[in-house]
Design goal:
The protein has 123 residues and is mostly beta strands. It has 1 helix and 11 strands; from the N terminus they run E-E-E-E-E-E-E-E-E-H-E-E. 4% of the residues lie in helices and 48% in strands. The strands form 2 sheets. Strands 2, 4, 5, 6, 9, 10 and 11 form a 7-stranded mixed beta sheet that branches. Strands 1-3-8-7 form a 4-stranded antiparallel beta sheet, with no helix packed on it.
């Protein structure tokens, strides 16, 4: 029903920036809360950021507050994660996620996942 395609990952030096993009299929994109999760090697997947369907509400993992910004462009069916001041600890596979419920998404209860994009931050 919904396909999520991520891009923008790569290798960056500590202190650098990356912008991840996630393009969603379907005409109901604007009704979904969107978010980003990440999973580092040997660790559990963790919540990073979420944005409500209207864009009026956002939520962030404490360790990325002030460094990461989530945004969306419903006309383009796209959600973004701008990552600044990157640290080696940010290295992980980042996954785009979509769910009708903002609260559910923040809890990891999502209907749809992207394939993941690798972000590697070198020291």
């Amino acid at each position: 029903q919904v396909q999520l395609v991520e891009s923008g990952g790569g290798l960056v030096q500590a202190g650098g920036s990356l912008r991840l993009s996630c393009v969603a299929s379907g005409r109901t994109f604007s009704l979904y809360a969107m978010g980003w999760f990440r999973q580092a090697p040997g660790k559990e997947r963790e919540f990073v950021a979420a944005i409500s369907w209207s864009g009026s509400s956002t939520s962030y993992l404490d360790s990325v507050k002030g460094r990461f910004t989530i945004s969306r462009d419903n006309a383009k069916n796209t959600v973004y994660l701008e990552m600044n001041s990157l640290k080696p600890e940010d290295t992980a596979v980042y996954y785009c996620a979509a769910d009708p419920g903002f609260g559910h998404l923040r809890q990891g209860q999502v209907d749809y996942w992207g394939q993941g994009t690798q972000v590697t931050v070198s020291s």
